[in-house]
Amino acid sequence: MELLKNLPEMDLMRSEKMTFVQLIIPVESAHRAVSYLGELGLLQFRDLNDDKSPFQRTFVNQVKRCAEMSRKLRFFKDQIHKAGLLSSVLPTLQPDVDLEALETQLSEHEHELIEMNANSEKLQQTYNELLEFKIVMQKAGVFLVSGKTYETAEGRELDDNVYLSDYPESASLLEQATQSGPSISSGLRFVSGIIPKSKVLLFERMLFRATRGNLLFNQVPADDHIMDPVSSEMVEKTVFVVFFSGEQAKTKILKICEAFGANCYPVPEDLTKQTQITQEVLSRLSELETTLDVGIRHRNSALHSIGVHLTTWMTMVKREKAVFDTLNMLNFDVTKKCLVGEGWCPIFAKPQIQEALQRATFDSNSQVGIIFHVMDAVESPPTYFRTNTFTNAYQEIVDAYGIAKYQEANPAVYTVITFPFLFAVMFGDWGHGICLLVGALILIARERKLSSQKLGSFMEMLFGGRYVLLLMSLFSIYCGLIYNEFFSVPYHIFGDSAYRCRDDSCRDAYTAGLVKYRDAYPFGVDPSWRGSRTELPFLNSLKMKMSILFGVAQMNLGIMLSYFNSIYFNNSLDIRYQFVPQMIFLNSLFGYLSLLIIIKWCTGSKADLYHVMIYMFLSPTDDLGENELFWGQRPLQILLLLSALVAVPWMLFPKPFILRKLHSERFQGRAYGILRSSEVDTDSEPGSARQHVEEFNFSEVFVHQMIHSIEFVLGSVSNTASYLRLWALSLAHSELSTVFYEKVLLLAWGYENILIRLVGLSVFAFATAFILLMMETLSAFLHALRLHWVEFQNKFYAGDGYKFKPFSFAAIADDED
Q1: What is the mean pLDDT of residues 605-617?
Q2: pLDDT at residue 92 in the model
Q3: CA-to-CA separations, 776 to 292, 426, 716, in angstroms, rounded
Q4: Taking a C-beta distance cutoff of 8 angstroms, is the pair 500, 515 a contact?
Q5: Cα–Cα dist 402/393, whole Å
Q6: What's the pLDDT at 230?
Q7: What is the C-alpha to C-alpha distance for residues 626 and 316, in angstroms, rounded to an integer?
Q8: Which GO biological-process labels does this protein carry (predicted)?
Q9: How many C-beta atoms lie closer than 10 Å to residue 88's C-beta?
Q10: Would you place residue 564 in the very low, low, confident or very high pLDDT band (cuts 50, 70, 90)?
Q11: Contact 531, 714 (CB under 8 A)
Q12: Mean pLDDT in residue range 577-602
């Protein structure tokens, strides 16, 4: 016991030791001190104003100003994006800008941009109107010129088909159109304009219904696309001319045009006036094009000058807002003109924090220094593991299940090896492993370039787990060499096979089998097992027994880690009444099964282990017969069975009764002392855990222990069975590889046609890449994840802690990305 306590600590085995500190900061040094602490990123502030709303805090006005500046910067960013310009990614060399000066500068830039945008929109709207007017003049003039010929050519045919209207006008539109003479003298009027092409059909139908068919609707598509001022997209439009009669019809048509967003333009009937107006419109369009071009260049120049400093300004505003948000978490003491803050920091960071606070005092020319001292805390400290680029992904796998309790044994230490290894047991193929290795090495080689880019969700996940993928591929190559599978094909890598045919013809190789003539194959599975009549039974037996051995070993490791947790937290009750009976129960049954597997492998016995384990429970005193693997096996089985039966009440009963006894002894005759201390604690530390001390409830403790014991007993069986997924997925991966190789590649290669061979090779490559390398990889990854989260971590890992989240400018930048 003492030897274990004196062992040196592992960096990742337990979280960093934390300390609760208090800061008393003069007002003049507060901003600079918090800024320096944000650059350091090793202090997690505690919110001392959580009972106040955001609008009741001290620095609410500064936060509002920073939020307003952030809005302006987002506006600039959107404008730069719409203009198709690129903002500078690299920070520019610019002298330090004061927040007030930056605020004024941003307001000036915003006012200038808004004014330029307003002028540009007005000019663009005028340009669009003139362009539409020009198009309407060109297209509608054709209908007006052809009106007279229409009157004479079509009039006689329509004389007998007059449609009488209920409107006050006595003659219908078609009847008026057939009368001789100009349109003005006959009372025929027209409205010309332009409308988006997508609305033409509905527009025409609405006009027809409103006028009861008393109109002539002519349309022609516009040659040029026109920019929509709202969406800044080019829209296809259609020119229309509506001939009608009567003032009431005109009112209806104009209202419908307004409702559909159609722009109406007056077109004179006189050709001379049309030509004159068209020339005037063309000259104005040319002037507007020049003016718009100059305005866009001036606007782009202003946006470019903003874009050079945009990244720097956004970073500065984010930092300032984060500083004031943090200052709002501190308690403002008006009488002493200081801010009081509390928080957590790692013990190793205390000198760095003190040095940063001293710099803040010196740089702010404060006459009073910042007081930094350690305090006692009742609540549990946050959990902080120092990781690097290699171990971070494995720590994230564990944290996805739950954050470790403070100073609890960290499963990530073992997950670094066990996770990729259990993955490889299910994915074992050194050909597929090499493919994964190439992908992992590409990600690692381009690590610096990819880390600075914005990746998609899938690619970001793949890049984050590049070192997990590296170890998974290496272990897959190792397990593939043991299974002797290269895209499901065995090779004589480590020498010749230990088996040969019975005769030269090898006719009975797959019926009667082979003959062993030399020592066993030196490494992994003998390639001669491939295709033999006993291949599947042999590999099934091997992988199933291997899965049980790995499972029992990992579950024992989990129980051992619970022992180290109990030692670390000085919890002798858990050692005597939880660790010991759990080890006895698990190893009396499944540890004994693992021992039988190893003995059977070493001795070559033909004993039936199913029979041994079943009749160990049904008839433990019967003679084992040919299933006896070693001398004294029957009395050992009886002893182990009795030990397992004793372990269950050992786990269940003693601990709750001992806890009740300890509780009654601890608080016997001390009721007044407890009352007095609780009153003091409630006044002094309103957020502490002391005021939440609950009365000891024996029934709750007993039920909890009973649930825990039943869960472990049933879980020992179900968890051991769950590790058989290693065998099942390994078998599935191997059989799928064999099917694709034999039924696709070899089948296609049997034809002399080069096209069939290419098709077969393509199908094989597609199946290997998308089914075996993507779907099977994901499947094996998820199953390995489940084995670690459920079967391994539930033996020792509470996972009810909370993560250390220090105030850090780097974390703010990462969250924004």
Answers
A1: 87
A2: 47
A3: 59, 9, 28
A4: yes
A5: 15
A6: 61
A7: 81
A8: vacuolar acidification
A9: 13
A10: very high
A11: no
A12: 94
For the residues 220-237, what does the mean pLDDT come to? 77
Task: Report pLDDT digits (tens) over 708-730.
Answer: 999 999 999 999 999 999 999 99
Phi, psi of 242 (to 5 degrees): -110, 120
Selected residue with higher pLDDT from 534 and 542: 542
Cα–Cα distance between 579 and 569 in angstroms, integer? 14
Cβ contact 229:124 at 8 Å: yes
> Is residue 97 pLDDT above 70, yes or no?
no
Q: Which two tokens stand for residue 536?
A: 């599947």
Task: Give the contacts of 26 (CB within 8 A, at least 6 positions apart).
Answer: 337, 338, 339, 366, 368, 370
% of the chain beyond a pLDDT of 70: 86
What CA–CA distance (Å, rounded) separates 449 from 456?
Answer: 15
Residue 733 has pLDDT above 70, yes or no: yes
Strand partners, 489: 486
| pLDDT value of position 680 | 37
Q: What share of the chain is helix, strand, coil (3-state, %, to 5)?
A: 65, 10, 30
Please state, in angstroms and rounded to a whole number, the distance separating the CA atoms of residues 227 and 709. 74
Q: Strands, E, within 172-307: which ranges?
A: 188-196, 216-221, 226-227, 234-235, 237-245, 263-264
The string over 458-496, giving b where at least 16 C-beta atoms fall within 10 Å of a residue's C-beta and e elsewhere, is eeeebbbbbbbbbbbbbbbbbbbbbbbbbbbbbeeeeee
Nearest alpha-carbon partner for 412 in 435, 438, 383: 383
- Report whether 397 contacts 788 (CB < 8 A): yes
Q: Which residue has better confidence, 160 or 380?
A: 380
pTM of the entire predicted model: 0.78
Q: Confirm if 635 and 624 have CB atoms less than 8 A apart.
A: no
Q: How far apart are CA 57 and CA 328, in angstroms?
A: 6
Dist CA 294 CA 565 (whole Å): 74
Burial 275-303 (b: 16+ CB within 10 A, else e): eebeeebeeebeebeeebeebeeebeebb
Other C-beta atoms closer than 10 Å to the C-beta of 812 total 17
**Distances from the Cα of 715 to the Cα of 561, 708, 722, angstroms:** 17, 10, 10
Give the separation between CA 31 and CA 66, rounded to whole angstroms: 14
Smallest Cα–Cα separation from 266: which of 176, 133, 150? Answer: 133
Q: What pLDDT, on the 0 to 100 scale, is given for residue 174?
A: 32
Show the DSSP H helices in 695-789 as ranges: 698-722, 725-740, 747-749, 754-766, 776-786
The secondary structure of residue 486, as a DSSP letter, is: B
| Whether 648 contacts 582, CB under 8 Å | no
Tokens of 806: 């220090």
Residue 572 has pLDDT above 80, yes or no: yes
